[in-house]
Amino acid sequence: MPALRPKTFNKIAERLFKEQDGVYSIVLGEIQDEEMVLDMAISCDGTWLTTGHQSHIGIGFVIDVLTGLAIDSHVALAPDHKEEGCAKNFDGTASMIDIRVAEFDWERSVDRNKRRYVIVVSDGDSKAYNKICDIAPYGKTGIEKDECLNHVGKGLGDSTEEPSCRLH
Known about the structure:
Elements: H1 6-27, E1 38-48, E2 57-64, E3 70-77, H2 97-107, H3 109-113, E4 115-122, H4 127-135, E5 144-147, H5 149-161
Parallel strand pairs: 1-4, 4-5
Antiparallel strand pairs: 1-2, 2-3
Helix pairs in contact: 2-4
Protein name: Mutator-like transposase domain-containing protein
InterPro entries: Mutator_transp_dom
Organism: Elysia crispata
């Protein structure tokens, strides 16, 4: 499947941000006490403007496991992105964008969203999770990693389909 053209990607991203903020404010903002900080289970995902790890623009989302709503997002612009009006906010390789986006979202989760992301449902890639544990954004409050059952099942399925040795 071909990647989206940059102009199309940017239009979709801009609309997603506007819609996300509106829905987030309505659904979650009304039920939350101003002083309360909510511990929640989340999943993270990200994508790049272009396919592969050569893109210099990435976007990451924090998704509430219970509602499926994107509750936070961040766009990372790598150093050689020279679009007029855009400032770089990321130094590193394209493959490190996911880690930086996760780090940024965790650092502002309490101040911006009054939430602590204490359970992460993961696809098995632990680079971002390890970075979050290193920075310890919530002090002594730990962050637990749960594996996505679908990914665990795929791994088990692979290991049971072809035995490593044959019995005679």
